[in-house]
Amino acid sequence: MSSRVPQDRRRRRPTRSGVLLSEDLIVQTALRLIGEHGPEALSVRRLGAALGCDPTALYRYFHDTDDLVLAIADRIIGDAMAGFVPGEDWVASLREMALRVRAGYLAHPRAAAMAAHRVTRRRSEIQAVDTGIGLLLSAGFERAAAARLYLAFIDTVLSHAATDAAFQALPRQQREADHRAWRDVYQDLDPVAYPALTAVRRELPGMADGSFEEAVDLLLEALAARAPARRASTGGSSPG
Amino acid sequence: MSSRVPQDRRRRRPTRSGVLLSEDLIVQTALRLIGEHGPEALSVRRLGAALGCDPTALYRYFHDTDDLVLAIADRIIGDAMAGFVPGEDWVASLREMALRVRAGYLAHPRAAAMAAHRVTRRRSEIQAVDTGIGLLLSAGFERAAAARLYLAFIDTVLSHAATDAAFQALPRQQREADHRAWRDVYQDLDPVAYPALTAVRRELPGMADGSFEEAVDLLLEALAARAPARRASTGGSSPG
DNA sequence: CACATTGGGTCAACCCTGTTGACGTAAGGC
DNA sequence: GCCTTACGTCAACAGGGTTGACCCAATGTG
């Protein structure tokens, strides 16, 4: 196996073009590459070219490409929730959490698409779960309900965000083809076979834009309707 | 451009090994391949080998690999929705659609994990969309609302199902590790740093079972609350 | 200051992938 | 029977990840 990655890194050699490699620089350059030239631009060879080093030099820093992707994912999670402070309005706070997660994913779609379905168990995730459940407790839900409903909420948010990220992570041709599908294919259907689609034909092009916020709002409406306490509380209640 | 795929297929030549190719056989073999050896086992060359034909023969049936993936996705949808007839209770019908989709994904977890986020723009998908929007129209929603809300509903269902499928598609070790880790890590936390998690500590193990139905129920509650026509789930009244 | 050690950048090579153009054969309509 | 052409086959290309070997220079040691 490749134990090309050492734990303690002491010696640094500049590459042929004079750049001093580091794990941080590589992750940063990878994110820039994705941001500028699309998700499909991330490959070992292209990353090497962008860094000004031989592609295989990266294997001195990461076991394989998956290792690199996970390192990128680490940073995404941290960036998304950085500086978030839950407010007194639990609905609004949950909503902001949802939007932050999605924004973090969409900022780096390919890495997010690859890592979205994994349980990180890191501090940022644990912190987020604690915050979210705390918000539902402050809303008056009992413990079991708070845990269960938070799971339903965050799973939906994460799944949705992953879907959006996966779409952004598609190669441009496929992405545009999927986008066009709502305009083209769904516009020219047999009215007898597909009456409902024919009826809403004019509304379909808008569907390509996604439904994240609508879904979050629906969920929050349902949660608010189920909440025992009617007002968004001042949040100071201590857990016994 | 590759117009290698004809619309009307008349002539059939057996391959060198005697197999008679067809779009149906190819999709079926691809599903088997993915189910047995994982999503990464699906390549043109391997599929050709499994079928007993030259790999490039597949380009006579599918535009490119993406086209094949979309065909696989549509087959999964078609199988899941086979025999489904929407009833008079639109909430219950949407609920059954959701459960069917999820069951279809879980029947082919690895294929679903690969194809879940795509717009197949094929028959089975179009049929399902027509059915779903028709249900919301029958509930009294206006056209734009019906289209928008159906998208939010089905996106949530598909995303959730994809998450469940992705989890099932994980290697057993990783899957069980994730499952266990949830209990272990979240049971031994600093009460001061994570008060909410500590409060609901005993409820957490149940969270590992997933939240699909809870999320669907929340969504349907919100939809029912927004519906102009008041007759929802329990009533047996027929829609005009 | 000199030396031995070794981290790590580089190169060549391997095997994988999707895809295309050319080729020829056999299947079907007439 | 012929003629057309659908379609299975083959060779080739560009690009991917990954590895083993090479060797220079940065570093700890004396």
Automatic annotation (TrEMBL), chains A, B:
One of its GO terms (molecular function) is DNA-binding transcription factor activity. Residues 20-80 form the HTH tetR-type domain. One of its GO terms (biological process) is negative regulation of DNA-templated transcription. Residues 43-62 bind DNA. SUPFAM superfamilies: Homeodomain-like (SSF46689), Tetracyclin repressor-like, C-terminal domain (SSF48498). Keywords: DNA-binding, Transcription, Transcription regulation. InterPro entries: Homeodomain-like_sf (IPR009057), HTH-type_TetR-like_transc_reg (IPR050109), HTH_TetR (IPR001647), Repressor_TetR_C (IPR004111), Tet_transcr_reg_TetR-rel_C_sf (IPR036271). The keyword Transcription regulation applies. This is TetR family transcriptional regulator. It comes from Streptomyces canus.
